[in-house]
Amino acid sequence: MEKQEVIPIPEYQMETKNLTLGLYDYSEVQQNVITLIQQQLEKYMTKDAKEAVVRIDSMGEPYIVIDTDEASSKKNKAYVIEEVRKMFDKTITFRWRHPTWGENIKTTCPIVTAIHDVEGKHYIKVNYNRWAIPFLIWYGKGVGGTVYDKTISLTLQGKYTKRIYKLICGYRDKDHYDYRIEQFCQDFNLPNSYKNNITILKNKVLETAKRDINATSSDVTFDYEIITERLHPKRKAKAVGIRFFPHWKKTRDNLNQQDQKLYSKCYRIVSICHVPETDIVTICDLLLNNGMMKIVCERWDYYEDRICAGDRMASGQPYTTNIAINSMKKMMREELEKLGVDPRKMSCLYPKGQE
Fold it and tell me: What is the model's pTM?
């Protein structure tokens, strides 16, 4: 029978969203490890949590079993182990109040304390620091926490993109969140060139994160604008902040009546385009998530009108349903590609042999 222990949680005094907004530099794999630990602690992720029930090993230490294929897209166990090992040298810091001493305490500790390589298997066992539990569970459900999708968090590429995804999840119900550029670059451990060149910051971090998050099934996405200030009347305005605008992404479950009609029409159009039945919803969701439903419907209406009127193309060839279908599939795949959608997700839109 699996051993468990109830670990009391001290009265801690951390700032809200400590892990979302804190100063740290964890790689993709290391962030995935934190995500997997948090998944185990998910039910205790509330501000008022007083205890957490965790799995403990034969030495009485909390642990998690990590599938190394899930922790890294490289599917390389040795690489994952090395990335986890590096977490020994990366510490977190938080403040709490001792329940009996009545003293304020500042604790510094690593999140991960040991790695156990199960030889011949694609998983490892990782011990995590029980003192890190308050820090970890604060970043989750409940007041001041962050609710995010585990699968999306694990599969997003890029350590900056992962953090921005969790940032916008944490502020999904707010109109905006302002982040001073200097603080943003410090918290994300960005090179000085990013702080000093807003174009690099936008292209390498913000635009990349926006594109990659939009390409997922995330129910949230974001826009942003650069906040500028004129620090001297004779000098041009300087970029001093980033204003994030988190907002809900439309999904089949939260469409209004008008968008429901558009989705139904897109479904009919995609079905006509000889897309396999098993892929129709996937393509329709891609069109929905990337804001393409209206243009697809309008383009199809254009071809239907030409066919019904007996119009001919510039070459003299009459418009036909097959021409309309081929043109629609070409338009959809090209526009989705421009938006950064992985071609493998829409392989059914390509001619055979050109996926």
Answer: 0.57
